């Protein structure tokens, strides 16, 4: 006959019974089964390991946070604007970057410069336009290689915001899943902030995980930050002053109106609000650069 011995833990009051290998006894007493040549079943012995010992053994296998290897910093690529690169170090690959600001704050200038720099590196880029607001002439004037740019227009005939947002999110999922793009830009600049904030935070988290460990730069253009902690880099833009010149109509028989002016350039201020490139918190810093219209004289 086999025997089972139970031991109760003083801490939890639960019995522990473990099967172990057969141990030879000093003077084993033959049982009836052994006398008739039957196999002897394995004995069940009691383990005296306490819960505290088991916990200590498990903790010993856990690597302390102080010994964890530091995560490699992402590769930074030029944004196309030297002043911006001096502030942020460039745009990080495998990360989500937010560029926010009001109208005429330089959002499109930074976006087109980044796309131009990426296509000049020989990379293919995707631009998802939620409001169908991209101007092809501005794209060509910025130096973007059009044969390396995929332009997705989400506006269509719908004047409602929600269908356009749904299209943008669906297209972004497909582009991130397919891969192969050096830069994917999501233009939400003309979407009201109250509508853009309806995008669930889980969606931005999914985008961040999808682009992680890939060579893709994921950009979002918006009025206000909406991705929260999912973005690794947050840049806030604003305009300081506008430069203009009087319209010349000397060749016309009609006099030029006194209020007619041509916008030639805009002074843009950029503030680095968040950067997760380093372990240390980033202090707020600002730069200023000029954006000049393509048709402005010299």
Features:
298 residues, 25% helix, eight-stranded mixed β-sheet, 26% strand, alpha/beta, globular, 2 domains, Rossmann fold, two-stranded antiparallel ribbon, single chain, disordered N terminus
Coarse morphology = globular
Element pattern in H and E: EEEHEHEHEEHEHEHEHHEEEE
Q: Considering the protein shown, what is the CATH homologous superfamily of the largest domain?
A: P-loop containing nucleotide triphosphate hydrolases
Q: Class by helix and strand content?
A: alpha/beta
Portion of residues within helices: 10-25%
Number of strands: 14
Report the sheet with the most strands, covering strand number, pairing sense and barrel closure: 8 strands, mixed
Structural description of this entry:
- By secondary structure, the protein is an alpha/beta fold.
- It has 2 domains: 15-57, no CATH class; 76-292, P-loop containing nucleotide triphosphate hydrolases (Rossmann fold, 3-Layer(aba) Sandwich), CATH 3.40.50.300.
- The protein is 25% helix and 26% strand.
- The chain is built from 8 helices and 14 strands.
- An 8-stranded mixed beta sheet has the order 9-8-10-11-7-12-13-14, sandwiched between helices.
- Helix 6 packs parallel to helix 8 (201-211).
């Amino acid at each position: 006959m086999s025997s089972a011995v139970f031991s109760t833990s003083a801490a939890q009051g639960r019995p522990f019974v473990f099967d172990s290998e057969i141990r030879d006894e000093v003077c084993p007493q033959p049982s009836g089964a052994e006398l008739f040549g039957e196999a002897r079943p394995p004995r069940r012995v009691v383990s005296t390991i306490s819960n505290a010992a088991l916990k200590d053994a498990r903790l010993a296998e856990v690597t302390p946070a102080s010994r964890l290897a530091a995560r490699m910093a992402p590769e930074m690529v030029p944004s196309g604007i030297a002043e911006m690169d001096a502030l942020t170090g460039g745009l990080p690959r495998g990360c989500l970057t937010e560029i926010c600001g009001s109208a005429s704050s330089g959002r499109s200038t930074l976006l087109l410069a980044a796309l131009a720099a990426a296509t000049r590196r020989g990379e293919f880029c995707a631009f998802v336009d939620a409001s169908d607001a991209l101007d092809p002439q501005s794209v060509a004037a910025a130096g973007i290689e059009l044969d390396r740019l995929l332009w997705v227009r989400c506006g269509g005939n719908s004047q409602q915001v929600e269908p356009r947002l749904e299209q943008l999110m669906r297209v972004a999922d497909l582009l991130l899943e397919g891969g192969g793009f050096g830069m994917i830009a999501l233009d939400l600049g003309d979407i009201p902030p109250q509508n853009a904030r309806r995008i669930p935070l889980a969606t931005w988290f999914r985008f961040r995980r999808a682009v992680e460990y890939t060579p893709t730069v994921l950009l979002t253009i918006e009025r206000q930050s909406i991705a929260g902690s999912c973005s690794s880099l947050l840049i806030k833009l604003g305009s300081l002053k506008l430069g203009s010149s009087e319209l010349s109509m000397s060749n016309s028989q009609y006099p030029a109106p006194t209020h007619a002016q041509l916008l030639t350039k805009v002074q843009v201020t950029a503030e680095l609000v968040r950067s997760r490139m380093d372990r240390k918190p980033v202090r707020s810093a600002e730069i200023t650069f000029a954006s000049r219209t393509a048709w402005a004289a010299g």
